[in-house]
Design a protein that fits this description.
about 190 residues; alpha+beta; 5-stranded antiparallel beta sheet; 9 strands; about 30% helix; Immunoglobulin-like; 2 domains
């Protein structure tokens, strides 16, 4: 092979590698725009909005949502703040429970557990800045009992998790999760 033929092959291989690299980078950068589902849309499959819907038990390879703990039972509630502030209430008699609020992209907005709440009872209000202004003018009677969370995210979901110390506690924990409330604040 002559020197000019080698140079042509080398230049061709380098050009191909550079083109492949550019295509790879473009594909990676466009993934967020091309994803057809989000955590928010996935959660819709488990039941109606503004209600805590029990998720199936965590089985390896078939988790309802990513990164769920198999030692916990989970319930999820989708919400839209355009419909009004959302009040979350629950009484979960287990050694540990936690609740995370997530926006429609699945990014955490807020999280708390029974230790930070100081009780086995959850009482939280999620609202937009505009709704908070209105609430200040006409506060509900139980406002001092509520954890008030303000967000500019208009839709998302709450994930309520309860630790099940032994399988004999699973029915009681499931009942408590199903009794949890995720509803529009009464005006």
């Amino acid at each position: 092979m002559t020197l000019s033929a080698r140079a042509s092959w080398t230049i061709g291989i380098l050009a191909t590698l550079m083109l492949a690299g550019i295509v790879h980078i473009l594909v990676i950068l466009t993934i967020p725009q091309n994803v057809t589902h989000t955590a928010y849309s996935d959660v819709a499959a488990f039941g109606p909005d503004r209600v805590f819907n029990l998720l199936p038990d965590v089985e390896p390879g078939s988790e309802a949502l990513p990164a769920l703990d198999p030692a916990m039972q989970h319930a999820v509630c989708r919400f839209q703040l355009a419909d009004g502030p959302v009040q979350f209430t629950a009484s979960i008699p287990v050694p540990f429970w936690s609740m995370g609020l997530f926006d429609s992209a699945g990014q955490a907005i807020y999280s708390l557990n029974n230790r930070t709440a100081g009780s086995e009872t959850l009482s939280m209000l999620l609202l937009s800045p505009e709704q908070l202004s209105i609430l200040r003018q006409n506060p509900p009677e139980n406002l001092e009992d509520l954890i008030v969370i303000e967000t500019d995210r208009t839709e998302g979901f709450a994930l309520l998790r309860a630790f099940v110390p032994h399988e004999i506690y699973a029915p009681e924990t499931e009942t408590a999760l199903l009794a949890a409330s995720c509803r529009t604040l009464a005006s």
